[in-house]
Plasmid mobilization relaxosome protein MobC
Amino acid sequence: MPKTTRHPPAIGTGSETRVRTRQITYRLTPDEYAAVARSGEARGWSPAQYARAVVLTDAGQTIPAIARRRPEAPPELQSALPVLTALLGDIRHIRTLLNQLAARANAGAVAPACAGYAKAETVVQGLSERIVAAILGEEGAS
């Protein structure tokens, strides 16, 4: 089985493909801004995303799906975030491999699939131990 190449995430701002090219700037009082920020935060949106949604809804436009902000990690996990982020990438890679094993098993290649599954199980166990170590702040978690 050929080794899959893991590509680093693409770096870019997305401005190369951005459709929205016009910008509106307006001023708010601190109280107005706080109200907009609170309303946006309640939906997991930035103040700008919330304001855009309100304006477009009022204008009768359909609002496309708005990406929600990732919730901020609790303070006790902040130091473990780099390790946990790396582990998340590893877990996604394992998920892909398990899907490939399932496809091969469904195609009749049961023996190679079983061997691959056993290897994946070992890797997942190791990752689980690293996650626990990272959360507990133990040395050697990375």
